[in-house]
Amino acid sequence: MDVLAEVLRVSGSRGALGVMVKAGGTWGLWLDSSPGATLHVVSRGTVWLHASDGKPLQVQAGDAVLVPPGTAHGIAGGADVTMGSCDREAAARSFGDGRALRLGSEPVQTEVIVLHYEQDPEVSTPVLTSLARPMHVTARQNTQFGRTAELLAEELAQPQIGTAAAVNSIVDLLLVQFVRAWLERHPEARSGSWLGAMRDPVVRDALARVHAQPERPWTTEALAVATSVSRATLSRRFRSALGQTPGAYVTQWRIDLASVRLRDTDEPVESISGAVGYASPHAFSRAFRRARGTAPGEYRSRFRR
User: Fold this and answer.
1) Which end of the chain is more exposed for a tag (fewer CB within 10 A), N or C?
2) Worst-scoring range by mean pLDDT, 59-68, 128-137, 223-232?
């Protein structure tokens, strides 16, 4: 079970091209917080990323930075540049016609591809939404990511038949490659996020089993046996990595799966309850109401309306 791929699929974490920025001279752009995460890929020159809670971060050509959802931040040509607010109308026009957003003055010295990633609000299992701070991957750390970024830049520079489909696929691929590179190169980091939990082999193994077979009657004891550790060890590692017990995570994931199926399919509640691991519709309804504040049938009806 590829846990990351499964969670990204269920959580609806999909990317979209924000805009290509081409800048020169003295320039700076402040971006208000947004519900989705933002990935800045620098294809040329140097960018300084400014966040309200930290020192400016230098991001060079071939580097990328993933900014957590809801984080107001800015990008600029220098560490001490005063940044102006984003011209949303100009950005919308650039996004609509595929032209780059021009900042500063000629000649162009810096090019940045800005990508946005959003997650299904009905899915509570955190991936991008749990990031504690911007994540930086340099060109030296991952040449594969750099080649994919170059491919995206080429598609944007010379649009042709199928470019829209190609860009969407490349944008999603960049997120996976970015996360993979960050996990490999930052084993010492302690982000307190779901992604950070992937560095713990015990927790990762347990998550893989839960995601592969959510219908199994998982208990902390059963997961501990499956992962060849003691119950105390599994509980301790889970709390350290995710801030919750194995049982709480199992319930959360089951309710997430059920929520998506209730909203997007016409499957009977009885079928969904069994598919996500509940012995009876009554037990499922009780757990769902605790998690979502409403009964499964009412939840489905709300979306139908």
Assistant:
1) C
2) 128-137
What letters, b where the CB count within 10 A reaches 16 and e where it falls short, cover 81-107?
A: bebeeeeeeebeebbeeeebbbbbeee
SS3 242: helix
User: Contact 177/193 with Cβ under 8 angstroms?
Assistant: no
**Percentage of the residues of the chain whose pLDDT score is greater than 90:** 42
Report how far residue 135's alpha carbon sits from residue 37's, in angstroms, rounded to the nearest whole number.
11
Cβ contact 195:131 at 8 Å: yes
Q: Around Cβ 295, how many Cβ atoms within 10 Å? A: 15
Handedness of CA 236, 194, 189, 29 (dihedral sign): negative
Dihedral angle, C-alpha 276, 281, 287, 292, nearest 10 °: 90
- pLDDT of 35 above 90: no
Taking residue 157's Cβ as centre, other Cβ atoms within 10 Å add up to 12
| Angle at alpha carbon of residue 226, lines to 10 and 253, rounded to 5° | 20
pTM score of the predicted model: 0.79
Q: How many degrees, rounded to 5, is the angle at CA 58 between CA 56 and CA 62?
A: 145
